[in-house]
């Protein structure tokens, strides 16, 4: 290892010396051109030679920038992984055991040849599914702590699931996975951007399709159309760090406990359930909107939703949903 390191340093010194020599030659050529005492043929020859020198320096500069970028990424990842290993292995009394490092998760998934490795479809679905459920639980607890009241805070008609949280967890994982072994600053910035984009997109889509909103930040400073604001974007940034450094590794560790023989068919069954749940929820909300507009049930599907999902039941399920005309 030490020999390789010495060879790398010697190569860098040689490249630096060659670059210094090219710079010196280029200065000489430019000085010759500025004398204005050259014949035309000689002038053209020196100009061409100077252009070649400049092109070589440009190429060398690009190589150096690429090398420095690669070194910066490598150093940041190595330093982060070392700190996380030291954090996990440090002997001290803890109320909650530390989350495994992402590098440990990667190694365990590869060793087990697990069905939900990396960013596979199976892993991303489980991230979405768990996010749909965990988000509702956390929000219910938060509302209870703040107001002392219980609110459903769901987004689907079957079960305690909200796809906004699932999509947020999926998007954060997709965006921050490449930074899972990098510094927390990158996770914070990525969480701000991705979380805000998901929140804005979900709000926009809901209002365009159903004419309703579930949140409004118009009274918050630095808001964008009331859909997102700076404060909650910062919260998304913090969540990005907590997610990729604490929550995702714990979730991935739990998913690792699902055997391959069980995991694959179970995942497929849950996919069918969630698709059905989303479709039924969307249709029930659309029919709710139609009833509010005074449209009668002119087919069997509409009559079914009128019977099983009347306004009273929809209002209890979506207690925090507000129609824009109100």
Short description, anyone?
The chain has 326 residues and is an all-alpha fold. It has helices at 2-34, 40-89, 102-112, 121-147, 163-176, 184-210, 230-256, 260-292, 300-308, 311-317, and strands spanning 212-213, 223-224, 228-229, 322-323. The protein has 2 domains: 2-89; 109-323, no CATH class.
Structural summary, described in words:
The protein is mainly alpha-helical. The chain folds into 2 domains: 2-89; 109-323, no CATH class. Helix content is 73%, strand content 2%. The chain has 10 helices and 4 strands. Strands 1-4 form a two-stranded antiparallel sheet. It has a two-stranded antiparallel ribbon with strand order 2-3. Strand 2 (223-224) and strand 3 (228-229) form a beta hairpin. Helix 6 packs across helix 7 (230-256). It is elongated and about 95 Å long. The N and C termini lie far apart (70 Å). 25% of the residues are buried.
What are the salient characteristics of this protein?
326 residues; 2 domains; 2% strand; elongated
Q: What order do the helices and strands come in, and which of them pair?
A:
Blueprint (H helix, E strand, L loop, with lengths): L1 H33 L5 H50 L12 H11 L8 H27 L15 H14 L7 H27 L1 E2 L9 E2 L3 E2 H27 L3 H33 L7 H9 L2 H7 L4 E2 L3
Antiparallel strand pairs: 1-4, 2-3
